[in-house]
Automatic annotation (TrEMBL):
It holds the Pfam family OmpA. Residues 185-305 form the OmpA-like domain. This is OmpA-like domain-containing protein. InterPro entries: Bact_OuterMem_StrucFunc (IPR050330), OmpA-like (IPR006665), OmpA-like_sf (IPR036737).
Amino acid sequence: MRRANQNNFARPNNGLSDFQKFGLIALGAVAVGAILSNGQHVVSNSGDRVVMRDPDGRYSVYHDDDALLYREGTNYTTQDFGDGSILSRYTQADGTVIVTIRDADGRVLSRHVEYPGGRRVVLFDNTQPSPPPVIAELPPQSPIDLLYTADTDPNLLRAAFETQPIQSAGRTFSLQQIRSIRQVRYLAPEVELTTPSFDSGSSAIDQNQAQSLATLGRVMSDLIAANPNEVFLVEGHSDAVGDPAVNLALSDARAQGLALALTQYYGVPPQNMITQGYGESDLKDQTQGPDDANRRVVIRRITGLLN
């Protein structure tokens, strides 16, 4: 069974509509404390993201991967399928149409763009299974770890994003594999942002803070203009102080907040970004105390890794 809905979306202050505030059809109404059929325990549900704990103690966060696409002036239609997956079409003011398929957990499986005039660009397609990577056979991680500041030279930043792996992996990966397997993610160059800084407990970036993103926004926009199938992963990370579920949710929200700022202030196409929070699971400094180095946002250009 499928159902079509059409909406003229007007973005409220939080960037999400009331109707589709949360794309997790199966999880959005699940109460904190519930135990799912796969054994996962729901520890947090803020309405726009759900944090769960696996039986082995690991935490994971789920959010609507299409949240960046819900913009003022965008018309969208959706088709809901019996397996919980959703096909969405977002028609922007200039006639550009973004088509996504998400699974029942809100994870985007495929995304392509249809431009006025008939051009069609596939960003990624993970609708077919991808064999799991053999970690021991992966090449070394990228040697590029650029610290971005408001004064970073745009040519240096562009060169960092475009750096090729030391050695080819001999294959591509699904988006979920890139997101969830750090050894795969590390194959892409890392650009770590030292700015803007977030207020405690906040994921918002105001216009003054966003000024420090000018070079980043221009370089990303230029790369996408030259190659519309570019995809960037925006990662949020925290230190190990406090509740791990809270850290995970906040890091996820900050990654999304930064991506929204890049779109709102610098016109970076939202369809070319994927956001993911990692909380304290990928510490840069191995310390359990407060650490500014661990509270960071990282951006990777993952185009060459994607199926």
